[in-house]
Amino acid sequence: MYLDTFGLITENSVYVLKKGDKIVYVGIGNPDQRFNAHNNNPDKTGKFDKMQVIAEYNDRRSARNLEGSLLNRMGNKNSPLYNRNLLNARRKDGGYWHSYPDIPASPRKLLSDAELTVTLTHDPIKTKKAKAH
Predict the structure, then answer these.
(1) Average pLDDT, the chain
(2) Nearest to 20 by CA among 52, 50, 55
(3) Nearest by Cα to 66 from 128, 115, 4
(4) What angle do CA 26, 28, 33 make, to 5 degrees?
């Protein structure tokens, strides 16, 4: 487990990569490690200007709930959060790889558009600028 300089557990961070003001990728993990992986491989993950950590959790399930919900809503044309510019990997059914299903009986907590909007509009926990490619 990695601890940042403030002692926060960062393996369960949820982050977004942005190009300008547009989110181009949603991810989970250690922000420093993931930033380096994305920044050093722009052909695979796309070019971005910055990474913003939008949430940190003590447990993986909570982080996965946020990531899966964001990917579900951003991939849904009926959601106000719809984003056709995401570079996240897709499954064979066209959905994003880690997106949660919109099934009432699912054990996974699918967060609402309103809950996700609050998370996306508050100030990020951390921001890192990408190197120029």
Answers:
(1) 83
(2) 50
(3) 115
(4) 110
Torsion of CA 26, 29, 33, 35, to 10 degrees: 20
Residue carrying the six token digits 């200007």: 49
Query: Which pLDDT band holds residue 71 (cuts at 50, 70, 90)?
Result: very high
Q: Residue 78 carries which side chain, given as an amino acid letter? A: N
AA letter at 11? E
Phi then psi for 44, rounded to 5 degrees?
A: -90, -45
Q: Which tokens belong to 107?
A: 């054990």
What is the rounded CA–CA span in Å between residue 61 and residue 65?
6
Task: Judge whether residue 101 has pLDDT over 90.
Answer: no
- Tell how strand 13-19 and strand 22-29 pair up: antiparallel
Which is higher by pLDDT, 37 or 133?
Answer: 37
Question: In the chain, where are the structural domains located?
Answer: 13-129
